[in-house]
Design brief:
about 300 residues, alpha/beta, Rossmann fold, six-stranded mixed sheet, two-stranded antiparallel ribbon, 11 helices, 8 strands, binds adenosine-5'-triphosphate, binds nickel (II) ion, AAA+_ATPase, P-loop_NTPase
Length: about 300
């Protein structure tokens, strides 16, 4: 940034995704989820610096040249449902034309075959066939979302990144879209779903990664995360408790500035379990980055207490 300032948008993210698996990436606005997705597709701004490694099916993505990214990565190895679909669709071409072009490019269909295949491709994302001749600005937010999802599903990429794929959709469409994305993992493809919608994550995810201030602070099985014992990181527990159907109490305070991160645990200032040790940044071990994670037994006890209180 100007003045030599650095924004540590993503500073510690290590995970793997198995064939056929769905991982949900959750965390507060601004914690680095979309930057992580952009990094995997080589879509970061020119002044961004990346380090580390990220491979999909043997291809290194970080630092791959533009030629590789364009011809083998984007849409083919890694698909993307972008966070702001209206901004990613080409404004001067109809949705149908964009779907047909994508079909021709990624599946090699002829122009004529692509025309009829476009209806089926749209249908996969519940995009109405009679809207295919519309331009992006003629679509509602939810329709643009569905158009972007239809485009992202076409390549059947081994890894699909879906960045907030259910924003602006009503609950039944959320479920339908989430289920269609989940079907992408049939035949051994993987899905990384970035979402604020924990109900959608619970519906389709096998594992959940929780991000805070640019770091993954917990990575755990979805059943445990949403189940009786719940997550172990205090922030992850706070995220869940903020849900209306749970405590409906937000985590107090705000996340730190990513250009001015504290040396120790970035969550300490907001954490009711914080102590002296938290002045040192906790390493990510055993699925959690915290000096005093909630133990499963204590978590279960707390959850029965909550039931009694309710
Ligand atoms: N081009 C950029 N230049 C400077 N800072 C950026 C840039 N893009 C993102 N950031 C910063 O990186 C951080 C992470 O942004 P990111 O978009 O990944 O958040 P997010 O977790 O996806 O949030 P949301 O849930 O709101 O989409 C933010 O603090 C943001 O301000
Ligand atoms: Ni985002």
């Amino acid at each position: 940034m100007r003045g030599g300032r650095h924004v540590a948008a993503v500073s510690g993210a290590s995970f793997d995704l198995a064939a056929g698996e769905c991982l949900a990436l959750v965390g507060e606005s601004g914690c680095g989820k979309s930057v992580l997705a952009s990094a995997l597709l080589g879509l970061l701004p020119g002044n961004a610096q990346t380090a580390g490694t990220a491979t999909v099916a043997g291809t290194e993505l970080l630092g791959a040249d533009e030629h590789t990214l364009a011809l083998t990565v984007r849409g083919r190895l890694v698909g993307l449902v972008p966070q702001s679909p209206a901004a990613h669709l080409t404004p001067v071409r109809t949705v149908g034309a964009q779907i047909e072009e994508t079909l021709r490019e990624l599946t090699g269909l002829s122009r004529k075959a692509a025309r009829s295949a476009a209806v089926a491709a749209a249908e996969r994302a519940a995009f109405p066939a009679d809207h295919l001749d519309r331009y992006p600005h003629e679509l509602s937010g939810g329709l643009a979302q569905r158009a972007a999802t239809a485009l992202a599903l076409i390549g059947d990429a081994p890894l699909l990144l879906a960045d907030e794929p259910t924003t602006g959709l009503d609950r039944d469409l959320v479920n339908r879209t989430a289920d269609e994305l989940r079907r992408h993992t049939d035949d051994g493809r993987a899905l990384l779903m970035i979402t604020h919608d924990l109900a959608a994550a619970e519906r389709i995810a096998d594992r959940v990664a929780v991000m805070y201030a640019g770091r993954i602070v917990e990575l755990t099985g979805a059943r445990g995360f949403f189940g009786e014992s719940g997550p172990r990181h205090p922030y992850a527990r706070g995220l869940l408790n903020a849900l209306p159907e749970r405590d409906f109490t937000a985590v107090p305070g705000l996340p730190p500035e990513l250009s001015d991160l504290p040396e120790g645990c970035a969550f300490a200032a907001r954490c009711d379990r914080a102590g002296e040790r938290c002045a040192v940044r906790p390493a990510f071990t055993d699925g959690v980055a915290c000096h005093h994670p909630v133990t499963p037994a204590a978590a279960r006890a707390a959850s029965t207490k909550d039931v009694h209180r309710a």
